[in-house]
Design a protein that fits this description.
Blueprint (H helix, E strand, L loop, with lengths): L10 E6 L4 E6 L10 H16 L5 E6 L20 E2 L8 E2 L5 H19 L4 E6 L2 E3 L1 H8 L2 E5 L3 E3 L3 H4 L6 H8 L1 H10 L2 E3 L11 E3 L4 H13 L3 H18 L4 H12 L11 H8 L1 H12 L8
Parallel strand pairs: 2-3, 3-6, 6-8, 7-9, 8-11
Antiparallel strand pairs: 1-2, 4-5, 9-10
Helix pairs in contact: 2-9, 5-6, 10-11
């Protein structure tokens, strides 16, 4: 049964009562299923529906047309913080200055509340991951309880190249990826394939892209056969263990560091994505970013 979707169709929601599985699909393929605040809020609303429905045990999170998600839409980097207002007493005058630190903290707190809720979601979460899982999409992929990913999926946190390495749920990165891989991805902004980290056991199952949908559905149906009350109790126990062992301070540290990290001062020779985007447009800015950060491998022959 398909429930009502977002008015613009960018988030889809389906319930299969027979299997006790809800499916949420990010449906913005023209932008590689990146999401804005409206989409994120719609995703949160559907997750709340699953939480409140005693007949559902599993939520399957996926992206349309073979792409999981490239994370937050960066076409308007400051748009997440809303319009500023002029400082001359005219509350209706738009202000093009950077958002204040207090505004950043307020918005980032709300943003990371979403990720914390998803990380501690009381039902089983299964990720069907292929194509790209970048930025916030990579975080959600790592936060799922069971993750099935295509070997050629490109994963990473490329936004660290223009907003700094203190992005995302740092405790979760170090816990799920391990400190070596977490530092590599955050300090370089590298995008790697899932196949290259398959031996690290980051994801539940790594397979060929043609098999991702069927394998994710298999895991979802397998988990859905578990006693629903037992799952909820287990998920709360898992969260308690992770909070005591790995996530102490995460709730504050994630949004605090993100708010500070999005207020960088750039020195000469450093790449300023926001300024470059304003001057050259988003598409050209991404190309210039990749050129700036490209370092050729040394020839060891």
């Amino acid at each position: 049964m398909t429930e009502a979707s977002a008015s613009d169709g960018r988030v889809l929601f389906d319930i299969d009562r027979d299997t006790r599985i809800a499916t949420i699909t990010l449906n913005n393929p023209s932008q590689r299923n990146s999401y804005d605040q409206t989409m994120r809020d719609e995703l949160a609303r559907y997750l709340d529906i699953v939480v409140d429905d005693d007949d559902l045990t599993v939520v399957l999170l996926r992206g349309a047309e073979g792409v999981f998600s490239t994370g937050a839409n960066m076409n308007n980097a400051y748009g997440w913080y809303g319009e500023g207002r002029g400082g001359n007493g005219d509350s209706s005058a738009p202000d093009k200055r950077r958002p204040s630190q207090r505004r950043r903290l307020t918005v980032d707190r709300k943003t990371f509340d979403f990720y914390h809720e998803f990380l501690g979601f009381p039902k089983v979460t299964v990720g069907e991951i292929s194509g790209f899982a970048l930025g916030g999409g990579f975080e959600m992929a790592l936060m799922t309880d069971i993750s099935v990913i295509a070997r050629d999926t490109r994963i990473g946190m490329p936004a660290t190249r223009f907003l700094g390495p203190a992005l995302g749920s740092l405790h979760m990165f170090f816990h799920r990826l391990g400190p070596v891989l977490a530092r590599q991805l955050l300090l370089t902004g590298d995008i790697v394939t899932a196949e290259s980290v398959e031996h690290r056991g980051v994801f539940t199952e790594t397979c060929e892209s043609a098999h991702v949908t069927a394998r994710a559905r298999y895991w979802a149906e397998k988990a859905a056969k578990m006693p629903a009350d037992g799952v909820v109790i287990a998920k709360e126990a898992f969260r308690l263990v992770e909070q005591s062992q790995a996530y102490q301070g995460e709730e504050v540290a994630s949004y605090l560091f993100h708010a500070f990290g999005t207020n960088l001062q750039f020195s000469s020779g450093e790449f300023n994505f926001v300024k470059t985007r304003a001057q050259h447009g988003t598409k050209h800015a991404f190309r210039l970013r990749d050129e700036h950060f490209h370092v050729p491998e040394p020839d060891l022959t």
